[in-house]
Design brief:
This protein has about 425 residues and is an alpha/beta fold. The chain is about 35% helix and about 15% strand. It is globular and about 60 Å long. It binds (2R)-2,3-dihydroxypropyl phosphate (GP9). (2R)-2,3-dihydroxypropyl phosphate binds near residues 38, 79, 80, 128 and 192.
C-alpha cells in the first residue's frame, strides 16, 4: 500500500539538494530536441586517429554550449531502452532484463507526462520498428504523445544500411517533422547507424579505419566520424530554421559501443593499459546542452543519466512534483556527486569504487578499500530503493503520498536555510 512508498520518499528527501537558481528557467517555454547518440562514448571527443579529429564538429559545438565531461551512462541489459528509462523517470533500470519489457504496465509519472501537463507536446523519433524494446507499449506508460517510428519515415533500400535508415536521412526527415509539430515541444531522436557491428557504405567512410587488433574498434571510429558529419548537417540546418530561436538541444550518448572484450585494442589506441579503473572511466558518455541563452561552459561534475531529468526540468523552469527521482540537478554546485552504476559501483568527487576495490578518481591509483565503504553503501541503498519502486509498482500510490511533503516545498526550505 501507500506506506511502502514512504521510506523511499524519506530517503530521497534526505538526499535531496536544491535546484540551481541561476539556471532555473534559462530555457523557459522553449522546445527541446533531445538527441540520443547511439553507442557514443566520451573517449572519442577531442581525440584523434591518424592525426585527424574523430568528432570535429562536436568538438567545436561543445565549445559553444554547456558540456559535461564526467557524465556516465548507467544502463544494464536494456541498453538504449535503459537510457530512455533513466532519462524519463530519474530512476535506475533493473538489474536483469529490460525494464521496458518487464515493467511496461507499471504506473509512472515520467517527464513527458509532466511536460504534457505543462503544455508541451511530446514525441520520440526513431526509425526502427516500433515494437523494438517494447517501445510502443512503454511510451504510452511514459506519457509520450507520439512515436514516429520506422513506418513514419521514408525508408528505402537506397537510404538504408545495416540496422536501417542511415542517420543522415533520419536527421533530415526528422527535422521536417519537427517543423510541423505543435509548440512548445519535447522531442527525442534516437540515432541508429553507430551501432554494432559499426559498418558503413564505402562512400560514407570519412576517416580511415583504425589499426588496432580489434576490427570492431577500428570500424567504430568510422561510424562515429560519420555520425559527427551528419550531426553537423542536422545542427546547421536546425540553426537556419525558425526553430533555432526557441529551441534547445540536449545531446547525449546512450551507452558504450566498445565492450570490455576489446580492452586490449582500446589500450593500443589510448596508449595505456586498460585496467578496471580505466574500463570504468570509459563508461563516460558526452552530454551537451546547446541553444540560445545557454552560456558556454565545461562542467566537470560527476553525474549520470539519472540526473538528466531534474537538470532539464530546472532549465525549463517547470516545477516537477514527482518526488520519486534519484537524480540531482547537475548544475547545482552543492550537489551530491555520486554516480551509481547498475552493478553497484560508483564514482564520487574523490573516489571510484569498483567491486570492492577503491581508486582515487583523479589519479586512478588504487587506495585503501575502506575509503570507498560509504560510497558502496550509498550505491546499494540507492539501487535497493529504486528497485523497490519498480518491483512494487509503487508509483501508483504517488497521489496518496503527495500530501506528505512535495519536493518543491523541501527545496524552498533548503534554499532558505
Ligand atoms: C534499436 C536501437 C539500438 O532500436 O535503439 O538499441 P541497443 O541495441 O543499442 O539497445
Amino acid at each position: 500500500d501507500s506506506n511502502e512508498l514512504v521510506p523511499v520518499i524519506n530517503y530521497l528527501n534526505e538526499k535531496n539538494t536544491p535546484l540551481n537558481a541561476e539556471y532555473a528557467g534559462v530555457a523557459k517555454g522553449k522546445n527541446v530536441i533531445a538527441i540520443s547518440l547511439e553507442s557514443t562514448q566520451t573517449f572519442v571527443v577531442d581525440n584523434k586517429l591518424h592525426g585527424e579529429e574523430i568528432t570535429p564538429y562536436f568538438n567545436d559545438l561543445k565549445e559553444e554550449g554547456l558540456y559535461f565531461d564526467n557524465f556516465y551512462h548507467q544502463v544494464k541489459q536494456g541498453r538504449t531502452s535503459d537510457s530512455e528509462f533513466l532519462l524519463a523517470n530519474s530512476m535506475y533500470p533493473t538489474n536483469r532484463g529490460a525494464v521496458f519489457f518487464t515493467h511496461s504496465s507499471n504506473e509512472y509519472e515520467a517527464m513527458p507526462e509532466v511536460l504534457g501537463e505543462n503544455g508541451y507536446s511530446t514525441s520520440v523519433m526513431h526509425a526502427n520498428d516500433k515494437t523494438f524494446w517494447n517501445r510502443n507499449v512503454m511510451y504510452d506508460s511514459l506519457g509520450i504523445d507520439k512515436f514516429y517510428s520506422k513506418e513514419d519515415y521514408n525508408v528505402t533500400e537506397e537510404n538504408s544500411y545495416g540496422w536501417g535508415l542511415l542517420d543522415e536521412h533520419f536527421f533530415a526527415q526528422s527535422l521536417d517533422k519537427m517543423k510541423k509539430i505543435e509548440q512548445p515541444f519535447y522531442t527525442r531522436m534516437i540515432t541508429l547507424t553507430n551501432h554494432h557491428p559499426f559498418t558503413l557504405p564505402e562512400d560514407k567512410k570519412y576517416i580511415e579505419e583504425g589499426n588496432t587488433s580489434s576490427g570492431t574498434l577500428n570500424r567504430y571510429f568510422q561510424t562515429i566520424r560519420y555520425q559527427d558529419e551528419v550531426l553537423k548537417q542536422f545542427v546547421e540546418n536546425f540553426k537556419k530554421s525558425e526553430l533555432y530561436d526557441d529551441t534547445i538541444l540536449m545531446i547525449y550518448g546512450d551507452h558504450f559501443g566498445i565492450s570490455e572484450n576489446h580492452q586490449k585494442a582500446m589500450g593500443e589506441y589510448l596508449g595505456k593499459d586498460i585496467n578496471e579503473f580505466e574500463q570504468f572511466q570509459l563508461q563516460r558518455v558526452p552530454l551537451l546542452f546547446y541553444g540560445k541563452g545557454i552560456e558556454p561552459q565545461v562542467n566537470h561534475t560527476v553525474g549520470g543519466q539519472v540526473d538528466l531529468r531534474p537538470t532539464l526540468m530546472n532549465m525549463l523552469g517547470i516545477e516537477d512534483n514527482n518526488p520519486i527521482q534519484f537524480g540531482h540537478d547537475l548544475l547545482n554546485e552543492d550537489r551530491r556527486q555520486l554516480m551509481v552504476t547498475r552493478d553497484g559501483d560508483f564514482a564520487s568527487e574523490k573516489y571510484v569504487g569498483i567491486q570492492g576495490s577503491c581508486y582515487d578518481r583523479q589519479t586512478g591509483e588504487e587506495i585503501e578499500a575502506e575509503l570507498c565503504d560509504p560510497g558502496f553503501k550509498q550505491a546499494k541503498e540507492e539501487l535497493t530503493m529504486s528497485d523497490s519502486v519498480i518491483y512494487g509498482d509503487l508509483l501508483r500510490y504517488l497521489d496518496e503520498t503527495r500530501v506528505v511533503e512535495p519536493m518543491d516545498e523541501q527545496n524552498k526550505q533548503k534554499q532558505e536555510e
